[in-house]
């Protein structure tokens, strides 16, 4: 993204010195439009451009023609596909998992006054291909006439208008964007770009776990999974090639190639997508609500599965516990002091050497792993284990893995910094494109799951060894997709052995929402770490993912990564945030158990008990999420896309459909709160407020948190204290009615009645 005067070339990563044999091929006016098997095929000629400060047609080189396919689906989705003669349109993809709601519907052509009108059988217009000559008032010969272009407008749901960026330029030879183009390098087609028109007030969201403000307009994003190393930078573990627009449409780019997405960043008039692969396959999804658009995305790429009941309880972890005795002591104390907890997680220290992942317990520190796990299970704990998809040079399995090519053979010696935080610090990456390697990996996990382990933390996976030979795919295409293959394998074997479909994953790509759940990575234990985590979680929920968590109270400390003390107010405020998240896990580089923070420990326990009280509500909302487009953590724009303020609020959210949560993220215990349209009740005080207003500079004591609930909502809660979800009988759930008699959850006795099972 070096700023130059080479206009489009800058965005397309051209060598600005023009030292390489590169060429840009621009789409021109279609020469034919015809129907084939219900699809519309558009013959598009491409003209090579002379690479200069201005772009002009290189008429010495013949045009090349390729077929653009337009396909319509019944639920307001239009698909554009262009394989440039090298790729065929297919539904067979790891990323795609069409629901029963997805039905292809035939398109019909009608030619009318220089336009081809594409409609479905009911007469609904779905696209217009314009081949009219532009209207000109010729009074000057100063500049040449505009070049031919591809001018298509889509109407995916028959209502929303999404136009390719046909004439987005300053003057005929100086384009800010091209509707469709591809690049050649050394005679090979290798990149392709697609651009949609953008409106001046258009806002954007989604694209994965994005640590940015809510409105992403003006951003140019590199869709390449990599270690985020925190939650306050451009790097991210979870890139998703999907965005939402305030014009009530979304676009899913069906690719796993490294890509760039400019959301009115490079050109303020265009949404531009550039793939490193010479193929374009875009699904444009329109709808009346944001949830409808997100559901359309899930209809294409798969719905989340339902996590087990126990996963909604408290998870306790740190990096790391080193022995069975240490874990037993902590778990026994939890029960003795009645801190409700369901999961104990063992991170990097359960092997013979810390970080040396061999999928086997250290026999000295865990002399009877099965007995250890079963003891914990009898006490109401599930055991989760850390591992990663790389095999170390010193691992017990290294020779087997190399001999059978379960890890992809390297083409050259890798550099390493010895940090344990990079794929390059290990001998090789497990090749999940190779079925035998996948089965081998599943076998390693099965041994642990057979002992009683209930969850595998599928850490890393956002990076792979790029200088390696994978059996099924080039590393440049595998890097982003790797997370999906990795998590799928762990999820499948876990569900097969335990009956519970769950992983605890860090990386993600399109389709990973099928394998919950994901957490936000290595945030700092600070206010900005908390704020960055929330931003990432909100965009992630706007990218098709229902379930998301984060390390409470942040992963690493400051100024010393491992050894600094977490501030008590950060711990407490992050706890409150965690209670109102789909899943809550304590984890980090030092002690996370609440008794290490004695001044706030009783308060932490009180909030944990609240968490367990809310589990029936969380279950209810989770069931809704796995069959719709809703996430558990909902940005305000999901409910109020027309409210321009909501497109700029990234420190509040809906928790499910009934709670509005505004975490406090400062030591001053103050914040501004925006109440969107509607009638709201303070969950803790019972105060009633009318929405569409700001509450300015609200003081919030450490023991409180701004949480509001919709007036007249009925919240299912669990009425009894429990130490874990094993003690829960959800048939005992009660209805908390937020009516005129409601006085606040912790004030007097709230109005609780038996839930009507009808």
Rounded to the nearest angstrom, the radius of gyration is: 27 Å
Oligomer: single chain
Number of strand elements:
45
- Assign an overall shape: globular
* Helix content bin: 10-25%
Low-confidence stretches: 1-8
Strand content: 25-35%
Question: What's the tally of helices?
Answer: 11
What do the pLDDT scores average to? 94
Which structural class fits the helix and strand makeup?
Answer: alpha+beta
How far apart lie the N and C ends? 59 Å
Q: Biggest β-sheet: count, sense, barrel?
A: 16 strands, antiparallel
List keywords for this structure.
758 residues; alpha+beta; 16-stranded antiparallel β-sheet; seven-stranded parallel β-sheet; 18% helix; globular
How does this model look, in words?
With 758 residues, the protein is of the alpha+beta class. Helix content is 18%, strand content 27%. It contains eleven helices and 45 strands. The chain has a 16-stranded antiparallel sheet that branches. A hairpin with a 3-residue loop joins β19 and β20 (249-253). The radius of gyration is 27 Å and the shape is globular. The chain starts with 7 loop residues before the first helix and ends with a strand.
Give the helix/strand layout.
Elements: H1 8-11, E1 22-27, E2 32-36, E3 39-51, E4 55-57, E5 64-73, E6 77-82, E7 104-105, E8 108-112, E9 115-119, E10 125-130, E11 151-154, E12 162-163, E13 169-171, E14 174-175, E15 180-185, E16 188-197, E17 204-208, E18 219-223, E19 239-245, E20 249-253, E21 259-263, E22 270-275, E23 280-286, H2 290-301, E24 314-316, H3 324-336, E25 343-346, H4 369-378, E26 382-387, E27 390-391, H5 398-403, E28 428-429, H6 435-451, E29 455-458, H7 475-498, E30 504-505, E31 518-519, H8 527-541, E32 548-549, E33 551-552, H9 568-579, E34 584-586, H10 601-613, H11 615-625, E35 633-634, E36 653-655, E37 659-661, E38 670-675, E39 679-682, E40 688-690, E41 693-699, E42 707-710, E43 714-717, E44 734-737, E45 752-754
Parallel strand pairs: 24-25, 24-34, 25-26, 26-29, 29-30, 31-32, 33-34
Antiparallel strand pairs: 1-3, 1-15, 2-3, 3-4, 3-5, 5-6, 5-7, 6-23, 8-9, 9-10, 10-11, 11-12, 13-14, 15-16, 16-22, 17-19, 18-21, 19-20, 20-23, 21-22, 27-28, 35-36, 36-37, 37-42, 38-41, 39-40, 39-42, 43-44, 44-45
